[in-house]
Amino acid sequence: EIGLTQSPGTLSLSSGERATLSCRASQNIDISHIAWYQQKPGQAPRLLVYGASRRATGIPDRFSGSGSGTDFTLTISSLEPEDFAVYYCQHHSIFGPGTKVDIK
Amino acid sequence: VQLVQSGGGLVKPGRSLRLSCEASGYGFSFDHHTMHWVRQAPGKGLEWVAGISWNSGSIGYADSVRGRFTISRDNVKGSLYLQMNSLRDEDMAVYYCVKALYEYGDYVGDVFHIWGQGTVVTVSS
Q1: Which of A29, A91, A93 should be substituted to probe chain B, the one whose Cβ sees the most B Cβ atoms within 10 Å?
Q2: How many Å from the N-terminal Cα to the C-terminal Cα in chain A?
Q3: Closest-approach residue (CA) in chain B for A43
Q4: What are the tens digits of pLDDT across the range B17-67?
Q5: Which of A96, B36, B82, B86 could serve as B19's disulfide partner, Cβ 3.0–4.6 Å?
C-alpha cells in the first residue's frame, strides 16, 4: 500500500505570503489520482485540486497544484485570511497526515 | 446540491448504529456516482472507511472496519447508508458521506468531491 507524507506539519505565515505544501508518496503514482483538500475547524473538507493540478469548481486561482512521480506540491500564491486551515493530500483510499497553515 | 446526514449519536461498545445520507438538489446525479464514507477521529486526520460504486456492483472497506461495517445505497431514494456493528472505542469519530467526482467508476482511485456536513459517533460505556 502506498503511503503519503506531508511537510511541513505546520506552516506559520502571514496574509499575502506564499505557501508551499509538500506531499510525498512512498512510490511513483499516477498524477491523475492525487487530490488536495482544505479543512477549516468544525467544517467538512473541501476539494481544492485533483489530477495533481486541476482546480475544482469555484476554487480561486491562487491555489495551484503540481508534481509528478512521488513528489507533489500545493501552492497558495498569496494567502488570504480565509486560507488558514489544514490541507490534506489524497491518493486512492489514503490521506496524508495534513499540513496546518496558521497565522504567524 | 448537498448531502444531508443523520443517524449519529452515543452508543455503547459492542452495539450497533446506522448512519444515513440523503442527496438533495436538482442535478445531483446521485445514481451516477460512487459514494463513500470517510471518518475523522477527534483531533486526527481523515480516514477512508468504505466506498460503493454507482450500481452497488463494487464495494470496498478499510481493513479497520471490514466484517463489522456494511455500506449500501438506494438510488431511488438518493440515499447512502452505513450499518456499523460491534462498535469499538476507536470507531468514535465524525463520519462524512462523500460523493465521488467522476461518474460510473468503481470505488478505487476516486476523488472526494461533495461532502456531507458530518455526523458524530460517540462510542462510550
Answers
A1: A93
A2: 36
A3: B117
A4: 999 999 998 778 899 999 999 999 999 999 999 999 999 999 999 999 999
A5: B82
